[in-house]
């Protein structure tokens, strides 16, 4: 009688142990012959969700979408949640409880940490009896938005741990998160962005008047005041005079220590999804028609009056220019895996790159998955491709 046990030696390099007549024989998958019944083990993917940023709740909704779309015939999914206070838990309850926040009160939650030691290849779980148990994984899918998840900090920890992970690396995540740095890099690569002026918190007391003068000299109203390191339009104000400008700057400093003020662009808001490592490709483009004065947090996730139009109704020449610029910006900032690239199509026909989101929302109404679906890549294939891109970057043979 023959029994087959499947296991991974290291990061998805599949081997089998054949036990036959009391003898144990280790075989490489590539060496098995026809007629031998071998069941290939699944890769274990950890989905991390939540986090301490002001986009915590959106991360929960995105995680449910991602978990539901990961092909279960190829991957076993491990779920790890981070509370708003920054506590990590291994979550083993119903996936539907994640989006409501009820996951935090699940009785089976146990504390865990992501070990920076590559020897552990994953997480350390602290069981109720006090025992510390290793939970090894093959890949991490960090479904975290904003600070602490999309800004390079988690990516740095994953690099230390030696784990393959979905999305951009430490440096590109950090550059795309910082709007001032994004503008600087894009401008250096010949990509048009909105005119902007930076102000630091240290300049707020003694130099605010000078900075306001500089902004009014270089930029025209209306202006947009933005915290440099917040996503989903959090803390952003549209201002039309000096008084509103000063008030908007002080509001933005609640969220960050660095703020940028951009000249407003009159035009249409266009978005494009990009996927890939060394050979990225762009989706078709979509248009946002906000129900609010501009596409802020509430307009993105709460106001049902906002519309997404896929594909956008623009001429083919501009469509291709936007797609090409999306890939150019993606490469300039060193992006890998995925990103959503946001543009303004100005009234004068110019294409202005607004920002690059390295872990875009994956909710039911989010633009990234819908744009990919529009070009024939369903959500299950999207997540499968993203995981494979993570493994390829890490040099892992997943076949």
The CATH architecture of the largest domain is 3-Layer(aba) Sandwich
How far do the termini sit from each other? 28 Å
Instruction: Briefly note the CATH topology name of the largest domain.
Output: Rossmann fold
Q: What is the SS-derived class? A: alpha+beta
Classify the beta-strand content into a percent band.
25-35%
Strands ordered across the widest β-sheet: 9-8-7-6-5-4-10
Q: Helix coverage percent of residues?
A: 25-40%
CATH class of the largest domain: Alpha Beta
Query: Strand tally, please?
Result: 19
The number of helical elements comes to 11
Rg, rounded, reads 23 Å
Mean pLDDT: 88
User: Could you state the order of secondary-structure elements as H and E?
Assistant: EEEEHEEHEEEEHHHEHEEHEEEHEHEEHH
**How many strands, what sense, and barrel or not for the largest sheet?**
7 strands, mixed
Low-pLDDT residue spans = 1-39
Shape: globular
Textual characterization of the structure:
This protein has 399 residues and is an alpha+beta fold. It folds into four domains: 2-31, no CATH class; 44-167, Rossmann fold, CATH 3.40.50.20; 176-192 and 265-358, 2-Layer Sandwich (D-amino Acid Aminotransferase, Chain A, domain 1), CATH 3.30.470; 196-263, ATP-grasp fold, A domain (Dna Ligase, domain 1, 2-Layer Sandwich), CATH 3.30.1490.20. It has helices at 56-69, 96-100, 153-161, 170-177, 179-188, 208-218, 242-252, 297-301, 316-332, 367-374, 379-393, and strands spanning 2-10, 13-20, 23-28, 43-50, 75-82, 88-91, 110-114, 122-126, 132-136, 139-143, 196-200, 223-227, 237-239, 258-263, 267-276, 281-289, 307-309, 337-346, 351-357. The strands form four sheets. A seven-stranded mixed sheet has the order 9-8-7-6-5-4-10. A five-stranded antiparallel sheet has the order 17-16-15-18-19. A hairpin with a 5-residue loop joins β5 and β6. The protein is globular and about 65 Å long. It starts with a strand and ends in a 6-residue tail after the last helix. Mean pLDDT is 88; it is low at 1-39.
